[in-house]
Amino acid sequence: MTSNQNTTVCVTGASGFIAAHLVKQLLEQGYKVRATVRGTADKYPYLTELEGASERLEFVQADLLQEGAYDQVVQGCDYVMHTASPYIVNVKDSQKELVDPAVNGTLNVLKACQKTDSVKRVVLTSSLAAITDEPRNDKTFSEKDWNEKSNLKRNPYFYSKVQAEKAAWDYVEKNKDQCDFDLVTINPFMVIGPSLGPTLNESNKVIRDLMHGLYPVLMTLNWGIVDVRDVAHSHILAMQTESASGRYLIVNENWKMREMVSFLKNDLGCTDYKLPKIDLDSPFGTKIMHLLSYTQPSGNGTYMRSHIGQQMNFDNAKAINELGIKYISIKESVEAAVEDMLKWGHLKPRKANKMATA
């Protein structure tokens, strides 16, 4: 740990779901952390109260979209973890609200890193969205795949992640003679688990919505799931593993909607919640849900049409073999997410819920 105290890691968007865990784990391993946030440090007690924060955590306010704003931020840092990016499903102007901020923010960080000789590696938080926006029964996805279907109208959030990651790789390639750092990307699937802060993240929200009756029917839907603590750990492994290179698909298991509901009901005792009861997990049900998708907001509707009825198959061997990551079980992750949402008040407490009354 002593050697790590001489190493400074910059984490952009440090208040975020993944980034907060990343800050926590870096501090636990003895690193100095320079965290970029939107507000002042007092707005983030869940970071300032972390063990080691008073000695080794520094907060910096920086506008990700202002060119040059990160020049001083990354000066003297050994590594940069770029996690900040907008996540909005339904938008009015996809280019302005999603794509431009994601791409320009990423490029601003890389340009700043190019101006200093201290940064050895940039670890970029990308996404499954940059690999595909459509599960396929006949396809196994890996780091070799790129999402070529998303655009400003079809899954615009997914498109923003594709464009941001491609822009990063293009920039590093075009400027390889002037860059003293290399680039590694982390591409997680659906990220769930406990949150260090009070904000409800979008993936935990899926579980919350299942329990609160926003999904009244069981659909032929499935998710590749990974624990937020594992995603944070994968960033650190990618930083620490000298031979790490390219992209890393970070995902543990695939769970069907039916499996998720069964676990919530039978294992966690969430019987007093409005879990889906109508069973449309069938070819006929899939046809019905595809028709109903056109009544949903554009972002939700597109997602339903591209995901319902398809199986998400993936090859996660690269991260396991090259980074040595070992995943937390999905059951443990779901239970932690539910406990956490109860703690923060995102879930309505119910008498029949074992964890709510424990």
Structure report:
The protein folds into two domains: about 5-195 and about 225-250 and about 315-325, Rossmann fold (3-Layer(aba) Sandwich), CATH 3.40.50.720; about 195-225 and about 255-310 and about 330-358, no CATH class. The protein is built from 13 helices and 14 strands. It has helices at about 15-30, 45-50, 55, 95-115, 155-175, 200-210, 230-240, 255-265, 285-290, 300-305, 315-325, 330-345, 355, and strands at about 10, 30-35, 55-60, 80, 120-125, 140, 180-190, 190, 215-220, 220-225, 245-250, 255, 280, 315. Helix 1 (about 15-30) packs across helix 7 (about 230-240) and helix 4 (about 95-115) packs parallel to helix 5 (about 155-175). It is globular. The two termini are about 40 Å apart. The model has no long low-confidence stretch (mean pLDDT about 90).
Question: Spans with pLDDT under 50 lasting ≥5 residues?
Answer: none
Percent of residues in helical segments?
Answer: 25-40%
β-sheet strand percentage:
15-25%
Oligomer: single chain
SSE arrangement, N to C: EHEHHEEHEEHEEHEEHEEHEHHEHHH
User: What is the CATH homology-level superfamily of the largest domain?
Assistant: NAD(P)-binding Rossmann-like Domain
The count of domains is: 2
**Category by helix and strand content:** alpha/beta
- The CATH topology of the largest domain is Rossmann fold
Which geometry do the CA atoms define? Answer: globular
The chain-level mean pLDDT equals 90
Give the strand order, joined by hyphens, for the main sheet.
3-2-1-4-5-7-11
Radius of gyration: 20 Å
CATH C-level of the largest domain: Alpha Beta
- CATH-level-2 architecture of the largest domain: 3-Layer(aba) Sandwich
The total of beta strands comes to 14
Major beta-sheet overview: 7 strands, parallel
Distance between the terminal alpha carbons, to the nearest Å? Answer: 38 Å
Helix tally equals 13
